[in-house]
Design goal:
Layout (H helix, E strand, L loop, with lengths): L1 H17 L2 E7 L4 E3 L15 E3 H14 L6 E7 L2 H4 L3 H9 L5 E4 L2 E5 L4 H10 L2
Parallel strand pairs: 1-4
Antiparallel strand pairs: 1-5, 2-3, 5-6
Length: 129
């Protein structure tokens, strides 16, 4: 009986190890945001350096897929509508207080907010390895 229980635990671990960790980016697809502000606020960006949120998420998805981490994560863009943000109570609570998009959740938990750099996020994921 103990051996059967052990086999179930091992089977569950294998299943969870094969599942990709979700990275969800909550935001407004057409919002133009900075793609890597270093040491200044977004108002200091030169014209043309801001990009649409959806473009940045796509760029990050490609970078991640081509990296050594591609098999571990699944990226999804989630438009910040009341219905969509209600799926994550922490995101809903945060965005009900202030407009801080994009909000980046990794494994269902808020990890970053207010800006998005595809290269920077990939670097942060590598640091966590």
């Amino acid at each position: 009986m103990i051996f059967v229980g052990f086999l179930r635990i091992v089977a569950n671990l294998r299943t969870s190890m094969n599942e990709k960790i979700k990275i969800e980016v909550y935001g407004k697809a057409d919002d133009e945001i900075c793609s890597g502000c270093e040491g200044h606020d977004c108002g200091g960006c030169a014209p043309g350096t801001k990009r649409r949120t959806s473009e940045l998420v796509h760029e990050f998805s490609v970078l991640l897929a081509e990296s050594e981490l591609g098999g571990r994560y699944a990226v999804a863009f989630v438009e910040s509508t009341p219905e969509n943000i209600a799926r994550n109570p922490d995101v809903e609570r945060l965005l009900s207080m202030a407009s801080l998009e994009p909000v980046i959740c990794i494994g269902g938990r808020i990890a970053y907010l207010g800006g998005f750099s595809p290269d920077g996020l990939l670097l942060e994921l590598r640091k966590k390895q």
